[in-house]
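task queued by scheduler; priority normal; single chain, no ligands, no partner chains; default sampling; output format set to structure tokens
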Amino acid sequence: MDPRHQLVRFEIAGVDAEDPLGLWTAVPESAIHFGIEAESAAPPADTPIYRIHLPEDMAAAEAAFHEREARMQQSAHALDSIPDRLDDLVARTQARQKVAESQTVHFGIDELGTGEDVAEAELLNLIADVDVIGASTPAASGQIEFGIRDEAINPVLERAKAQFDALLNQVNDEILHFAWVETAMLGETLARTSVSWSGDAETVWMDGLSMEQIILHNRALRFTTHSRALKLRMAMTVAGGAAKVAALMTNPAGAALALPVVYRYVSQMLTQAKELNALKESIPNPSA
């Protein structure tokens, strides 16, 4: 690795889980230094703390931001594509179901996913799992009750449910609390800004900063604000997608698991976007 890039870190503290977009690395709150020079300020309790460590070399700092901003942009493009992809998937699957019914042939929803892309095929497989584990059991009243047996839930869905719950907690914390954004260089805090969800901000600057360093902190603020908004959009994309795929679930109780099913799908789409971008970057540019 180029030694100029070894000091680049995008860290977040004050959260209970990893960043679902993969733009920030979660660290213990004790790993974050709050003071500027002799100052010993600390953020209010439960405040998400974003800290960007940059190398002294301005070209390397610029490259670090460019790479991270490109990753954020590709995640945004992936999220933009998901509503239409899910609409198309639901329409295709329902059309196949109607054809199968007209031919008095029964196919499981996972079998109807033949020919789909990997992420879509896995989504249909998870829906099939949810339908299978939905139990119909006689209640004490003699009536039939539908439910999901917790012990039978697919481990993939269990992880996705925990991750989606963590995402909602992060979004809730960021809406309720100010964010604390710091830019550091060579272990020294250059500037710190407390910023509300609405964009109101207050900044403390280290004495003697260059114009380039001031610009870097402003760029850190923009990146942090946009990444927080993208996290909210991810949560909304999952919620909207769950409403769509619930139409494919035959077990009434299974609709409760539509959220983790779609969260898993969204995560797969984001991962595919990152892998595709990494592949493109690994191909030499003949014009370079």
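post-processing summary
- Residues 58-102 form the longest helix (45 residues).
- Residues 1-5, 135-148 have pLDDT under 50 and may be disordered.
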